[in-house]
Specification:
33% helix, 14% strand, 5-stranded mixed beta sheet, two-stranded antiparallel ribbon, globular, alpha+beta, 416 residues
Length: 416
């Protein structure tokens, strides 16, 4: 039962009601309260303020059209140019570095396609992924963390002629020998350049590990101690610094692994071994095995490679040697052990202002190359209706630039 009490408030007797009820959705409490309000006058009491709650989504209205942001590529180029100007002051002290003085836009969210270079590679020349990963894991060659910012600066390429004229060394050699006088100036003696056409599993991205192929009959058992600046040819005359690399010994492609590869893989590699100068030791070994019915020594193979006795080795004989496990495709793991941020900035800075030397002209006004290491070009002749396949191969070997293996020819057979 409700209990009613009279309390005096400002000399006015106001009835107070205390209800002991349970509220349910279907309760008749509102009707009961309405009845009490009718019986007792409580107009002098102010009603309680209710809290108002907005239940919805507020969508702002725009009075103008949104303006597009600047192009990401232009933004990236401005940042790189700013870094180059700041890097001109070589002896910068604490607080003077680019990261401490410049407010650069964050380019880490750029899509890879905005600035990365994707070289064209013959997928048929790649070994299977399981063999590749097994060799990388066996050596212990993870991805090296590259910290150069902005990330687009990691993909700035240079030309071989620029490297040769600025730092020394041959324009076409895989492992160029640099003049000691130039080494004394810049302190960078060891370099390595690979073509992704012959080495499709070699590193393609900064800090990435990869595999270097070798056609010589020997198998490496020890790592090379020398650490080299590693460059990959991403496109015609576009060379990218990927980091500082060490060549690590690993097992050559086994007979079983060779047989697991595709038919296209077999055709391409056997054809290359038959044609290319860098595979003459492999051809010499195959020739001597057939001639003597035994395994030749390295000295015998080296002597035979200086002759022309092996020039008639056929593709069928080469493939049979690989299928039988007598000839194996050698491999070295390229392990990235460092990345020189200052060196990449230096390359970008110097290459941006570098002017290629003008080609020399003779007395008749015809152009002549200024590179003493390049073969003298033969006089032009009237083009023939058909060109023999053998002549095409020789021209490919002698040419520099797109599509050739000239980069490896000078050193692969002798230097590896």
């Amino acid at each position: 039962m409700p209990i009613v009490k009279d309390e005096e408030l400002d000399d006015v007797a106001i009835p107070q009601i205390s209800l002991d009820v349970e509220l349910e959705p279907s309760s008749n409490v509102p009707l009961l309260l309405a009845k009490h309000n009718a019986e007792w006058d409580i107009e002098d009491r102010k009603p309680l303020k209710k809290r108002k709650v907005f239940d919805g989504v507020l969508i702002p209205a725009f009075n103008r059209e949104l303006q597009p942001s600047p192009k990401l590529e232009e933004q990236s180029q401005r940042v790189v140019s700013s870094q180059n100007r700041n890097h001109a002051t070589s002896n910068s002290g604490p607080g003077d570095t680019e990261s401490e003085t410049d407010e650069k836009p964050n380019l880490t969210n750029l899509r890879a396609a905005e600035y990365e270079i994707k070289p064209k590679i013959k997928a048929e020349m790649n070994i299977d992924s399981n063999t590749f990963q097994e060799r990388i894991a066996r050596v212990g060659a993870p991805q090296y963390p590259v910290t150069l910012e902005p990330a687009s600066a990691r993909w700035q390429t240079v030309s071989r002629k620029f490297i040769s004229r600025t730092y020394g060394g041959s324009e076409v050699s895989t492992f160029p020998m640099v003049d000691p006088k130039k080494v004394a100036k810049h302190g960078r003696e060891f370099w390595m350049f690979w073509s992704l056409e012959k080495h499709p599993d070699a590193p393609k991205r900064p800090g990435e590990p990869g595999i270097w192929y070798d056609s010589s009959p020997m198998e490496y058992t020890e790592d090379f101690d020398i650490v080299r600046h590693g460059f990959a040819r991403m496109n015609s005359d576009k060379w990218l610094y990927l980091g500082d690399y060490k060549q690590c010994a690993t097992e050559a492609l086994t007979q079983r692994e060779w047989l697991l590869q595709s038919d296209k893989f077999h055709r391409i590699w056997t054809s290359l071994v038959q044609k290319k100068p860098w595979a003459r030791h492999a051809r010499a070994g195959i020739h001597l095995r057939k001639k003597w019915s035994r395994e030749p020594t390295m000295e015998e193979i080296a002597d035979a490679a200086m002759t022309e006795d092996f020039k008639n080795v056929t593709i069928e004989e080469i493939k049979d040697a690989f299928d039988q496990g007598q000839q194996r495709l050698g491999m070295l793991v390229l392990k990235c052990v460092g990345y020189d941020n200052d060196f990449q900035k230096e390359l970008i800075d110097k290459f941006s202002s570098w002017i290629p030397p003008a080609k020399k002209t003779d007395s008749k006004g015809s152009k002549a190359t200024s590179n003493t290491h390049t073969k003298q070009q033969a006089p032009r002749r009237k083009p023939r209706a058909k060109r023999g396949k053998k002549k095409q191969i020789e021209s490919e070997d002698d040419s520099e630039g797109s599509g050739s293996f000239k980069e490896e020819e000078l050193t692969d057979a002798d230097g590896e």
